[in-house]
Amino acid sequence: MACTIGRGGACAAADKREGDGCTPIGTLPLRGVLLRPGKVTATGIRLPWRWVRANDGWSDDIADPAYNRPVRLPRAFSAENLIRSDDAYDVIVILGHNDAPPVPGQGSAIFFHLSEGRPTAGCVAVDRADMLRLLPLLSPGDAMEIA
Prior knowledge:
This protein is mainly beta. It has one helix spanning 128-134; strands at residues 10-12, 23-35, 49-51, 56-59, 70-72, 79-81, 91-95, 111-114, 124-126, 143-146. It has a domain at 10-51 and 87-139. The protein has one helix and ten strands; from the N terminus they run E-E-E-E-E-E-E-E-E-H-E. Strands 1, 2, 3, 7, 8, 9 and 10 form a seven-stranded mixed beta sheet that branches. Strands 5-4-6 form a three-stranded antiparallel beta sheet, with no helix packed on it. InterPro entries: LD_TPept_cat_dom (IPR005490). Pathway: Cell wall biogenesis; peptidoglycan biosynthesis.
């Protein structure tokens, strides 16, 4: 299926840096799914999942001890709000990049999400219909290969 990647193109995962707009190349495990209430249903999802709450965020601040982890907003450090004004984060599949353990500056919030109609900040995005068709096919232990 067609997808959109980062505005900086793709780069080796080892070369990924915070804010570079690159999508990391490699095999990234699917960690879980975050769903926006009222926008999608959870029917048939086999990956671990939960509903996104109004104060959910994801740390993108290299000085934050919770860098590249889910956090609660507001926060003293920079963090991406997981409730967006567009529909891109109605479905978020968390990809396992720089998370075991996170290394500050090597990229955060690398997700598989809905397309915004433009390049991403480093994620992989697909149209809503494709995501909803694919989501129930995903299982624990699956990974996304970005080449």
